[in-house]
Design a protein that fits this description.
With about 210 residues, the protein is mainly alpha-helical. It has two domains: about 80 residues, Rna Polymerase Sigma Factor, Chain: A, CATH 1.10.1740.10; about 110 residues, Winged helix-like DNA-binding domain superfamily/Winged helix DNA-binding domain (Arc Repressor Mutant, subunit A). About 65% of the residues lie in helices and about 0% in strands. The termini are far apart.
Length: about 210
Amino acid sequence: MTVVSSVEELSLLEALRAGDEHAFERLVDLYQTSMLRFALSFVRNRAVAEEVVQEAWLGVLTGIERFEGRSALKTWIFRIVANRAKTRAEREGRTLPFSALVEAGDGGASVEPERFFGADHRWAGHWAGYPGRWQTAPESRLLAGEARAHIDEAIAELPPVQRAVITLRDVAGLSAEEVCNVLDLSETNQRVLLHRARSKVRAVLEDYFKEE
């Protein structure tokens, strides 16, 4: 079944097939940063990730005529990044598949156990201290460069699969179904991984706003 892409994607696709350089530049502006973040979930360092992204863009240019629209253009591009990054990771000896990391648990509990009442408490299993409401912080603080840097650092410290999922969902803006397609994950695994990743990033934000 053909997927209906956004109006901008359809326009870009038509322009790319016509050899429009400006369309390719627009595509790079849209996805380069999130592609690089995504590639870093697979490979060891930024230099290698940049090479992966360059290879992916070459794959886009050489494969655009064969793109059949069975997924959104953005999903197809990130699938190419994933394939190139996995190939590079195998060359570097990082052969453990994402599925194995998911089955191994990939990072443990989303929230520290001490945040809940113990078994001897009348409210066992309930929150002992609710997460701070950092959403109420002034927008200028929430969007400040320092806060953004804390978020970036928190994402960078996540286990590889969690980092890949949150990058695709919350940075690149892919849907749950698209992420499952790109990473070959089940819907359940995608949901669990995203929850864990968001919980850890939220904890970092909580600490940051408490300090403020």
